[in-house]
Amino acid sequence: xxxxxSESIYYLSNQNDKxxxxxxxxxxxxxxxxxxxxxxxxxxxxxxxxxxxxxxPPVKYVVxxxxxxxxxxxxxxxxxxxxxxxLTSQKxxxxxxxxxxxxxxxxxxxxxxxxxxxxxxxxxxxxxxDTFQLSHPDIIFEKSLHVDLGNKVxxxxxxxxxxxxxxxxxxxxxxxxxxLGDSAYNTTTNxxxxxxxxxxLPMIEDIQQYDAVHFLLGHESICDVEEMDTYWRELVSAxxxxxxxxxxxxxxxxxxxxxxxxxxxxxxxxxxxxxDQLLQSKVTE
Length: 285
Ligand SMILES: [Zn+2]
Prior knowledge:
Blueprint: E1 3-6, E2 9-12, E3 23-27, E4 32-35, H1 41-52, E5 59-63, H2 69-72, E6 81-85, H3 86-91, H4 102-110, H5 116-125, E7 139-141, E8 144-148, E9 153-158, E10 168-172, E11 177-179, E12 187-189, E13 192-194, H6 197-208, E14 214-217, E15 221-224, H7 225-241, H8 247-258, H9 264-284
Parallel strand pairs: 4-5, 5-6, 6-7, 11-14
Antiparallel strand pairs: 1-2, 2-3, 3-4, 8-9, 9-10, 10-11, 12-13, 14-15
Helix pairs in contact: 6-7, 7-8, 7-9
Bound molecules: zinc ion (ZN).
């Protein structure tokens, strides 16, 4: 079932056991716009099935927030205009030439172009894989694009992010709603999760420019202003405490600065920033 956020905005909650991210629907007087296409044909069909139950204008646009498979693999199903930023399009280059049969998929997994979870999702949730070919985008934008759905404007913009360097947000000024995709999350390099220290403050600055009261996140569904403020505060205080590759030192610095022990979120962030220091030290070696 879809969650209704306002008169014109709905979303399908993320489903972590299936690696399905949050999908959004924004409806104007004439057209509707989908935020992220889903991780498979089946995910997209499930979403479209729910959309059909509503009396809303046809889906004319699908925005892909970044080039991670779980956000775009369902995009063919909408028969809509696919929109993404130019870096996302570049990063997806390989995908347009992929074959989706078992042997090819195993080759991509062996050469680390694809993870096992992605392969299994494709095997279970994309029918007719012998003929499956991922669509190309119809609109590629650089920094910013405004899409008018009929008395409802969606602002698509690239932001600086700790997750990827190709993050697009979708902001609906009328409703003070922002779809962040995965932009506020950590990232993984060589199987190590880390939070890019040099991107944290620029990202918060970019996101806080939008006057929003509802924040939709790729794998959490929805946060209000207070929850986002807590999230930023915990991230920033963890970031401030990490100045080396030592977690012990970071925890000590955190406790001295905050006069308390770190909670579970903060510990996760501290480790994420320490891992980032580790990766940076390897780069400069
Ligand atoms: Zn992602």
